[in-house]
Amino acid sequence: MTQWRVAAVAVVLGGGGCGDDVATPVGGSGSPDTDATTIGTSSTAGPDSTTSVGSASTSTTAATGSSTDAADSSDASSATGRASSSGSGTDTGTSTGTSAAGSTDTGSGSETSGSESGGELVSACVDIDLGSTLGVTLGTTSPLADDGDPPCIPGVGGRDAGHRFVAPADGFYVFETANSAFDTVVYAMTPSCGDTPIGCQDDVGLADTTSRLQAFVADGQETVVVVDGWDDTQFGPYTLTVDGFFEPCVGEDLGSGAAMTTGTTVGQPDRLAPPCALAGAPDWIVRWTAPDDGGWIVSTFGSSFDTVLYVYEGECTGVPIACNDDESVVVLTSELLVTPGMGNTITVVVDGYGPTAQGDYVLSFSPL
Ligand SMILES: [Ca+2]
Ligand SMILES: [Ca+2]
Ligand SMILES: [Ca+2]
Ligand SMILES: [Ca+2]
Fold first, then answer.
1. CA distance 160 to 211
2. Angle at Cα 280 formed by Cα 276 and Cα 286, nearest 5°?
């Protein structure tokens, strides 16, 4: 169940005021709870925070969030009890195999590639080791424990199945649960349970409560991909499909300082999905480095389609720290205020609102 946030958003990166803009943190760092189950969740966004993710810093909040979803009202702040289930917590005999590309190795976890730390199901939240294999995994969460909450739905979630995955190359990966028997939420973190979230996704669409998470994962990066239930009534058989294509994170380096680039997203792949808008559009990804400590306006004004902008710290690291769909209620291009700090690099994604939004883009960086 989901609530798509389509409000105008402007977010300060790394501190500094943001004036009177309508501003919404994409996530928050305010959780006092160090429990592994509440990684990077927002403490500010309130009940319709289901699309907020990550670890933004200081922004003030005013989101005129026009949630377009009729969805349920299971308020994140009020949800409490969760199934503890009778599962064993670690390891299970319930996964019914993996398929796809050849060298499968389901159980014991001793895949060839990956980091030194690989090889053992050391984390309590990991139930299945996928190694570096793309493909389809069939499993069930019915006998499993509730080891954690989705970072995009604080305080909710049910029984979950954790999958260790080691990226076989730099690339954009898709983790989806189409054909699962319940209302899933998928999230991922690196390198293990309770660590940095790299994404969280609830519903593919208003009529489809399965999940589709897109994320960049670096070569050899150990990742835990969790299939969770939306709440404690949602569990059972699931299908987790891991797909991806291998490509560096950044398509274009705009250097430092004032910059502008133009191009088209037509014909580009759908690499990543915005946390503040419908997914499915092709996108273009740039790198930019702040020349000073001041605020900078990132804008797609002049683009020919309904754009969405979002920003990662570094190169596709973690989850987006800021996202904006529309500059205003009448301007469907996007604008963000960023303050990365002198010498710091950010990754900016020019995306579209939903699968049909694509076209010619204009992307500019200008001092505040
Ligand atoms: Ca859970
Ligand atoms: Ca869902
Ligand atoms: Ca996209
Ligand atoms: Ca837009």
1. 14
2. 70
Q: Please tell me the distance from the alpha carbon of residue 198 to that of residue 309, in angstroms, as a whole number.
A: 17
**What domains, with CATH codes, occur in the chain?**
5-68+248-368 (2.60.120.380), 128-246 (2.60.120.380)
Distance (Å) from CA 217 to ligand 2 centroid:
23
Q: Which ligand is nearest to the CA of 200?
A: 2
Per-residue pLDDT tens digits for 282-337: 999 999 999 999 999 999 999 999 999 999 999 888 889 999 999 999 999 999 99
| Ligand in closest contact with the CA of 185 | 2
The pTM is what?
Answer: 0.70
Q: Which of 73, 71, 230 is nearest to 155 (CA)?
A: 230
Segment 10-65, tens digit of pLDDT: 333 433 333 333 333 343 333 333 333 333 333 333 333 333 333 333 333 333 33
Q: Which residues contact 240 (CB under 8 A, 6 or more apart)?
A: 136, 137, 139, 161, 163, 175, 176, 177, 186, 225, 227
Ligand nearest to the CA of 320: 3
Q: Could you tell me the distance, in angstroms and rounded to a whole number, from the CA of residue 177 to the centre of ligand 2?
A: 9
Query: Buried b / exposed e across 193-231, counting CB within 10 Å, b at 16+?
Result: bbbbbbbbbbbbeeeebbbbbbbbbbebbbbbbbbbbbb
